[in-house]
Amino acid sequence: PTTHHLAEIPLADVLDAQGIDAADLGGFSVGGAVLPLDVHVDAESRIRRIGVTIDSDLIAEFVGESEVAGVTFRVSSIIDLYDFGAEIDIVDGSELGAVDVTDAFLALAGS
Fold first, then answer.
1. Alpha carbon distance 106, 26 (integer Å)
2. Contact indicator for 106, 26 with CB cutoff of 8 Å
3. What pLDDT is stored for residue 111 in this prediction?
4. pLDDT given for residue 36 in this prediction
5. Per DSSP, what are the bridge partners of residue 6?
6. What is the pLDDT of residue 86?
7. Spatial separation of the C-alpha atoms in residues 109 and 62, rounded to whole Å
8. Burial class (CB within 10 angstroms; exposed 0-12, middle 13-18, buried 19+) of 36
9. Where does residue 53 rank: exposed (0-12), middle (13-18), buried (19+ CB within 10 A)?
């Protein structure tokens, strides 16, 4: 059994925790935007499920109402966590051809 918690995390706090300066977002303002989370915690205080939903209202707060005028959408993601304590092998992503696209994305965003 798990306990279900709902949280609203200020987007400014999320950026701060990642070491991202809001001024580096190409003129976008996080304002009072919040990231809504559904979190399920088990009896051993382990997170078992995380859910997040991003919709056009959240994006409108972030980029400005005029940027999404007339567009309505909702995207949800759920991550289930299990097999705690299982042995795993971690491989460096560069060995698999993984590429960090952060700089390219920020360039497209206009920063």
1. 8
2. yes
3. 54
4. 87
5. 38
6. 93
7. 13
8. middle
9. middle
What does the pLDDT look like over 10-31, one tens digit per residue?
888 888 898 888 777 766 667 7
| Torsion angle, alpha carbons of 51, 56, 58, 60, to 10 | 160
Tokens representing 93? 């992503």
pLDDT digits over 27-85, tens only?
666 777 788 899 999 999 999 999 998 888 777 776 666 566 777 888 899 999 999 99
Element (H, E) at 34: strand 34-42
- CB-based contact 78:102 (threshold 8 Å): no
Query: What is the spatial order of strands in the sheet that 34-42 belongs to?
Result: 2-10, 34-42, 47-55, 74-80
